[in-house]
Amino acid sequence: MSDTPKAQRYRWLIWVCSLLLLSVILLSLLPEVLRVGAQHWLRDHGAVQAQIEDIDFNPFTGSFVLVGLNAGKGMHVRRLSVKVDWLPLLKRKVLIHSLHLHGGDLRVQQDAHGVWQFGSIRLDDTAGEATPEADAGSPDWQVAPADVQFSDINLHLEGRLSDKPLSLSLPIQLLTLHLRGADASGRHGMSLRFQTGPVDLIIAGYNLAYTTLETDGDIRLDAGNQDLLTGLRTGTLRVGLGRVSLKDMDGVQLASLESVDIRDLGVHMDGKVTAGMVDLVAPKVTDALTGNGAMGAKAVKLQNVHVAANGKVSVASLSLDSVTASDMNKSSANVSVDRVKAQQITVDPTGAIEMAQLEAGGVRANNLPGNGDQMKLEQLLLKSVAVDAKQQVRLASLALSKLQLERPSVSATDSRRSARNNIVKLVAVDEIKLNKLHMTGVESGGFDQLLVNGWTLPAVGGHAMGRIGSVKVTQAAMKADSYHVKRLQFAGLDLHIERLKDGKIAVLDKLPAGSAPEKESTGASHKVAASDPHQSASQLLVDELIVAKGSRAEVRDASVLPAFDTRMVVEKMRLAPLDLSGKRKGSLDMRLKLGESGQLVVTGKVRPGPSPATQLKVSLKRFKMPELSGYIEPDFGKSIRTGQLDLDSTVSIADGHIDSANKLMLRGLTLGDSAQQGTATQGLTMPLGMSLDMLRDGRGDIALDVPVKGLLNDPDINIHDIINKALLSSLSSGAMTYAALVLQPYGSIVLAANLASGMISDAAKPRLTPIIFEPRSSALTAPMAEYAGKIAGLMKEKGLRLQICGVATSGEGVAVATDQAQAPAMSEQQLLELATARSNHVQEAIASHGVKADQLFGCRPQIDAEKKKAKPRVELLLD
């Protein structure tokens, strides 16, 4: 009985040793069993040629190592090692101490039926699905990897998405995840590092590729989230991409990036995504993608980017360097900008945009549509920009500096060098400021103030239009086709207005014309124009137009010879209102200094528009007349040597007609010779100099009333022709009227065409009413003697010269019976002697009143053959 306990102990020892031996055997066989079992499982799931070189499993340490897994062509793993902590499994938690995968090729693809498979292993969508009964009342499993490392893994994916090819080639060079302990809030941290080689993705008909991807940083885990994946929250993650390319399926380049660098990328609890910095190097977009030209930049940088869960995006700052855009709007237009910087940008999902500030510098544009213009802008600055969902725009301020607009003027024969020099300067502006702009769409809006400083006007071929010191527009409003401005002010005008020899306006008529398409007019528009002459395509109303004192204009007209040159300096200019629709008349008050001492004052009502009308009073004082010589010589054949002009005029323009009453005062006027013929003087009743002398008063001044009437819209008549014709008429009628007043009641000045006989050979000269004699008498009657005295007075006052020609009639030679006796017939010689006696008596009578002998001239006596109409007389020709 003493051996029984001992035997029992041996039996227990044998059982224990047997169990231990069995355990050792089982443990030694377990890797092989797992290897064989895994191979069978792989073969059962489609991997016909499944092979595993080695499996090592240590249940005590929870480590598992797999070496040389090959499951067909689509799955190869060089080494996989996993270490798991067993105790958390009791709480349905999987804590993976380490998961290392090194070397391998993994391919995921779709078969002909659209079923996904991993290498040769078919992935059944229903496999692994839990039944509602199995999940009822059971908590979810949680997985927590402490240390994960993948290296040298090539991942390939082939399939279709929405009936379009889907392909991904992802060479993973390194992927590491390292779990850290929980912080005070119970959140765990995880460090991440991810590196790839060249990646190629085909999706939705596009090919996206990049050479490198580098990601590193921290990831946070939400302690209270049961799902590990949904609990992932990035912290300070960095993402870098190299040489990104986007192409279509034909290999056409759509977009590219030299590199992308994203810093401090984070995904937050509320779904918000943030990035401390996004840096894009050399982004480019081609015309194949935009359909409206290519765009690019040297660098794009965004700071403090926030994307809310609802899609709202905000960016603290955005900067772009060396921005370019080419072939815009299907043309050769191109734009370049040295730098762009925006601050505090917000984009709402509704389409609303807000921006605290936008700044652009070094803007250049070439070959702009229409005329091929070139534009340069040194700086653009916008502040407080807001665009709401209804496309209402608000802008606190806009500022531009150093704006230039030029137009090339190149003919087909121009060389490249001449083309560079043949540039038309359209405009140059030192500064533009716009305050409080508000717009709704593109047809309505307004602003508080627009200020343009240093506006240089166009210049072509050595001719320049000058410069405007400043333009100030106050409180402007726009609605559809109407524009309303409260005040428009010009200051510091220095204009150069020149008419060339060919009659064209310098610069304006020399600008190269654009190729703007013609707009077709509909029948309805013609009806409107015909029914309402005051209607216009666009209407502008300016409550008050002011040109500041000191503004000036140089005016030159080289189409006349000699050229007209003068300077106008504004002393005061105001028009209120200016209504281009023609519905309202404006009050004009303009005072200008002309030349050295002249002054022009114009006041009255002005109505511009489709059918302009005016009621003006014009006063011109002390204007030097030699400057007008070029306008006088073609019509009068004389130049103006000296003289001063005063003008008082009332001007009425209506329905295309001008009606003006003008009172002219010509002081100290002297004429000189001219190489021009003066075709219009043929209408004068006497030579121009004589007509002027006839009108001079005791001080040598000439006062004229010159009415001007004409049709302004006649293309063959200009205002210069109308005025000259009126002046000729006034000179002629004025001289005639003056002579008639002096010689009344006996005579006046008459034309040769008004004489019945036309005997005198110099028929073009003006003449006075003849002195009449009694038949066969050479003595002056008392009235004719008085008439001779009046003629003498006129000659002394005006310095005229007189040709005196005695005339006898053939009727006087016929014998006539009288009460006293028979008057014998007179011979021709006797009649000539009678005519000579008559001229002698007239010359003596005029000379007796103090007329100088060198003012009186005789001529050969004449016999008038008319018997009934002819009167015995002395013809008086002015010379």
What does it look like?
The longest helix is centred in the N-terminal third of the chain and has 42 residues, at 3-44. This protein is α+β, with helices and mostly antiparallel strands. The strands form 4 sheets. It has a 39-stranded mixed sheet that branches. Strands 42, 43, 44, 47, 48 and 49 form a 6-stranded mixed sheet that branches. It has a two-stranded antiparallel ribbon with strand order 28-29. 19% of the residues are buried. The chain contains 10 helices and 49 strands. The N and C termini lie far apart (188 Å). The model is unreliable at 125-130, 132-137, 411-420, 515-536 and 751-761 (pLDDT under 50).
Main features:
879 residues, six-stranded mixed β-sheet, 16% helix, 39-stranded mixed β-sheet, 49 strands, alpha+beta, single chain
Low-confidence stretches: 125-130, 132-137, 411-420, 515-536, 751-761
Overall morphology: rod-shaped
Q: Report the end-to-end length measured between terminal Cα atoms.
A: 188 Å
Q: What gyration radius follows from the Cα positions, in whole Å?
A: 54 Å
Helix content: 10-25%
Question: What's the total number of strands?
Answer: 49
Proportion in β-strands: over 45%
* Average pLDDT taken over every residue: 80
- Major sheet details: 39 strands, mixed
In short:
The chain has 10 helices and 49 strands.
Write the layout of secondary structure elements.
Blueprint: H1 3-44, E1 50-58, E2 63-71, E3 75-85, E4 93-110, E5 116-118, E6 121-122, H2 132-135, E7 142-145, E8 147-161, E9 164-182, E10 188-196, E11 199-203, E12 206-210, E13 212-221, E14 232-234, E15 237-248, E16 253-267, E17 273-281, E18 284-285, H3 287-290, E19 294-296, E20 299-307, E21 313-328, E22 333-347, E23 353-368, E24 373-387, E25 392-408, H4 416-421, E26 423-440, E27 444-456, E28 459-460, E29 463-464, E30 466-479, E31 482-499, H5 523-531, E32 539-547, E33 552-557, E34 564-576, E35 578-579, E36 586-594, E37 598-607, E38 613-624, H6 629-636, E39 639-654, E40 657-672, H7 688-695, E41 702-711, H8 719-743, E42 749-750, E43 767-772, H9 782-798, E44 802-809, E45 816-817, E46 822-823, H10 828-847, E47 856-858, E48 862-864, E49 873-878
Parallel strand pairs: 4-7, 4-8, 31-32, 31-33, 44-47, 44-48
Antiparallel strand pairs: 1-2, 2-3, 3-4, 4-5, 5-6, 8-9, 9-10, 9-11, 10-13, 11-12, 12-15, 13-14, 13-15, 15-16, 16-17, 16-18, 17-20, 18-19, 19-21, 20-21, 21-22, 22-23, 23-24, 24-25, 25-26, 26-27, 27-30, 28-29, 30-31, 32-34, 32-35, 33-34, 34-36, 36-37, 37-38, 38-39, 39-40, 40-41, 42-43, 43-49, ...
